[in-house]
Design goal:
By secondary structure, this protein is α+β, with helices and mostly antiparallel strands. The chain has twelve helices and six strands. Helix 7 crosses helix 9.
Length: 292
């Protein structure tokens, strides 16, 4: 009878204490704890007075041998880019133009598209394009308004900004861009011999490149835009041409009719949610008359 009571008590203790024991004996039960933290905790447990010196030393050596790559290895904390700051760059340096630092000499003059005399004609091109493809027109309009434009009186670099072409015509770079800005050669742009069509075309060309098109598609898309705006090609021909370049960093564009249908579907689908302003689209978003 006494043995049965002892057996029952021992079994009860095992049942209730086994989960806690398993969790405490498994140093990796909590995945958020680092390996070094687990080592430190185990070493603190082994350093308790209840453990004899010889047993403590033996168990410490046995435990540490499981982590040969991390034992005694300090954690090195570095700031991003710190090594690059100490090392510098392999190439590059300060430049000057005559007696002026190049950083200041190349500054140019920033300007806004709205201040240009040809701004109304650019708006007219984008508006006519909106009647063909509201998507593309909106993308180009944003590229024009949100880009940083700079007039430069110095000749622009001929490296990296010459359009790819099968034509052997001699070309001069009058505009060039990078991730920061779009630079225009001011003497060419303000030359009265240059027509407004060519000036607007240059701005459209740079906007086309800005939205993701690469050579040789930039020049072709720019031509297509002016062809459809000037009624040289039909809207369907324009969309077929432009969408044939999809996948070159730019998606496909819908026609005005398809945009109207999409807007109508989306507008009807959110009628029950008048507060969701970002989804409550309408034809007015593209300046499309109700009779469309």
């Amino acid at each position: 009878m006494r043995n049965r009571i002892r057996y029952t008590l021992a079994l009860t203790l095992i049942i209730h204490c086994a989960p806690a024991f398993a969790q405490s004996s498994n140093p990796f039960a909590n995945p958020d704890r680092g390996l070094l933290e687990v080592q430190s905790e185990k070493r603190r447990q082994l350093a308790m007075p209840s453990v004899t010196g010889l047993a403590r030393k033996s168990e410490l050596q046995q435990f540490d041998s499981q982590f040969p790559t991390t034992r005694g290895t300090p954690i090195k904390k570095t700031r991003p880019g710190l090594d690059a700051v100490k090392r510098g760059q392999d190439r590059g340096g300060g430049n000057a133009v005559n007696d002026e630092l190049f950083d200041f000499a190349e500054a140019g003059t920033r300007f806004k598209i709205e201040t240009l005399a040809i701004a109304p004609k650019l708006n007219e091109v984008l508006f006519k394009l909106k009647l063909v493809s509201p998507q593309l027109s909106l993308k180009l309009d944003r590229a024009v308004r949100n880009s940083r434009w700079v007039f430069d009186t110095h000749p622009l670099s001929q490296t990296g900004c010459v359009n790819e072409s099968l034509s052997g015509t001699s070309k001069t770079v009058v505009a060039c861009q990078n991730q920061i800005e779009i630079r225009i050669f001011k003497p060419w742009f303000l030359n009265p011999k240059v027509s407004d069509r060519n000036k607007v075309g240059l701005l459209v060309h740079e906007a086309v490149r800005r939205i993701g098109y690469q050579d040789p598609f930039v020049t072709q898309v720019t031509r297509d835009i002016f062809d459809v705006v000037e009624d040289t090609i039909s809207p369907s021909e324009f969309l077929d041409s432009v969408n044939s370049y999809a996948g070159n960093g730019v998606g496909r564009f819908m026609s005005r009719a398809d945009s109207c249908r999409m807007i109508a579907v989306m507008r009807d689908s959110v009628d029950d949610y008048p507060k969701s302003g970002h989804m409550n689209l309408s034809k007015a978003a593209f300046s499309i008359p109700d009779s469309a």
